[in-house]
Specification:
By secondary structure, this protein is mainly alpha-helical. It has 21 helices and eight strands. The two termini are 27 Å apart.
């Protein structure tokens, strides 16, 4: 969706859902009694699916043009319908449209208003169409726009990460396994790990988009229609590169919804992991970063507190998106073909997931450039302990010692250091040689943190030249240069 839509105009323009006198249901001919009020309230979806109004009108305009082109309706009726739909679109944009609960959903609200505006011609719009293929179309149009927006936001965050990686190309920090200090790395290298995660996320959304971008309109209720519709023409109008091949599958398929929720869940996993590190790093125990005041809150009782609420909320909202994925999977798992009313329950999870993902990406993208990294604290942490122990083992390997033997030897050296309250850099050459006679004066070089980083020159490693090359490669791939 565009920027205007991303502000959720539908939710802010004071559109009201009202009840009014009796409305004739589109299925009224079959029923002898009126629908109970409690049933109308329970089955109504217009309170949330009104968000699809733009897409419902877009799809209806394409459908009306097709009906006119195929002479299923007259040109005059087509023009009346198009005029009425455009007027309704303008009324909704200006917040003047009144939604009616008894009419259940966005589709019937727009059709009811259309008939009021243009008379019997409006009743011809639904020719060769069902709400089953209509809602499938609306959801696909909606998700198509939102996926493109999400991919744009992912790329915005990637640009921020690349910028930070370049800025901190010489900043050294400890890398962790099991949340224990493991080996020294460059901060830029650490940040680029999230760049890779986000790129996989972007690729997943892009793949999902291919399966979203399939036209279901023309499938009608479930079996197609006997009227001479032109589905290719509608696909062209609505910019769909593909058309559904099976009418029953078209109206009952929500795989594209599940795929979107799955891709969103994966993205939120990655944003949550990044948030967790920001939370840890901003703690006094780490002291690696300071989050900007404008993106934190305080305590109602403890005056000194500065709480990392933004990353905490992103971490929490991840579970919310996972829940939506499970909810829709559960709704669909036992449904027989084709459409069932259970499918109405996919709307709120989709809408909330879209909002959650977009807001999480947006706020992270704005907050991260304002983070202050404590280079001194990071480098000090990288100097402590035995983070170059693997380098010492590799030094022994270069001297001809089998790796397993080298590993055991270094392990004994580390134990000796711990027992004697020393670090590897504190040891004299004589002490090293108690454990291995191949150790010589040149051992001191492999015990330097900067040298350790420089040595990690394998493709994808943390050496400065490799990190710079990775940044350059990514920029080239994205055509940012």
């Amino acid at each position: 969706m565009g920027k205007k839509d991303s502000l959720h105009l539908e939710d802010s323009m004071s559109i009201s859902v009202r009840t009014a006198g009796s409305f004739k249901k589109p299925w009224a001919g079959r029923f002898g009694k009126k629908t109970e009020k409690i049933v109308e309230a329970f089955t109504s979806s217009v309170s949330f699916d009104r968000r699809l109004w733009r897409y419902d009108i877009e799809g209806s305009i394409a459908h009306a043009k097709m009906l006119g082109k195929q002479k299923i309706i007259s040109k005059e009726d087509m023009e009346l319908i198009l005029k009425g739909l455009r007027e309704i679109r303008e009324e909704i944009e200006k917040g003047k449209f009144k939604f009616i609960e008894e009419l259940e959903d966005i589709h019937m609200n727009i059709e009811h208003e259309l008939i009021k505006k243009v008379g019997p011609a409006g009743g011809k719009l639904h020719t060769a169409r069902s709400r089953n293929d209509q809602v499938a179309l609306d959801m696909r149009l909606f998700l198509r726009d939102e996926i493109n927006e999400i991919m744009r936001l992912i790329e915005d965050l990637q640009k921020v990460i690349v910028g930070l990686a370049e800025k901190h190309i010489d900043t050294i920090m400890p890398g962790y396994t099991h949340l224990q200090r493991a080996q020294p790395v460059l901060l830029g290298h650490h940040l680029l790990a999230y760049l890779e995660m986000l790129e996989r996320d972007r690729e997943r959304f892009n793949e999902c988009l291919k399966r979203v971008n399939v036209l279901p309109l023309g499938s009608a209720a479930l079996s197609g229609t006997g009227l001479p519709v032109d589905r290719k023409y509608m696909a062209g109008l609505l910019k769909f590169p593909a058309i559904s091949r099976n009418s029953m599958d078209a109206v009952s398929d929500r795989d594209f919804v599940i795929e979107f929720l799955s891709a969103s869940s994966m993205l939120m996993v990655h944003l949550s992991r990044l948030s967790e590190e920001l939370i840890l790093w901003s703690s006094a125990e780490f002291g690696f970063i300071e989050l900007p005041d404008s993106y934190c809150t305080g305590s109602s009782i403890m005056p000194q507190k500065k709480n990392p609420d933004i990353p905490e909320l992103i971490r929490g909202k991840a579970g919310r998106v996972f829940g939506h994925l499970i909810a829709v999977l559960t709704v669909l798992k036992g449904l027989p073909l084709t459409y069932n009313r259970d499918m109405q329950e996919d709307k709120e999870p989709i809408f909330d997931t879209v909002d959650t993902v977009k807001s999480s990406l947006s706020v992270l993208g704005k907050m991260m450039p304002l983070i202050r990294f404590n280079k001194e604290a990071m480098e000090k942490a990288a100097q402590d302990g035995f983070l170059v122990a693997t380098d010492l083992a590799e030094y022994l390997v270069e001297k001809g010692i089998p790796f397993r033997e080298a590993h055991e030897t270094v392990g004994r050296i580390v134990r000796y250091c711990i027992e004697n309250n020393k670090t590897l850099r504190d040891l004299e050459l004589m002490e090293f040689r108690r454990f291995s006679k191949v150790i010589e004066k040149d051992v001191s070089k492999c015990l330097m943190v900067k040298e350790s980083i420089k040595r990690k020159n394998s493709y994808g490693g943390t050496a400065k030249n490799r990190v710079l090359a990775a940044i350059k490669e990514f920029r080239k791939m994205k055509c940012w240069e």
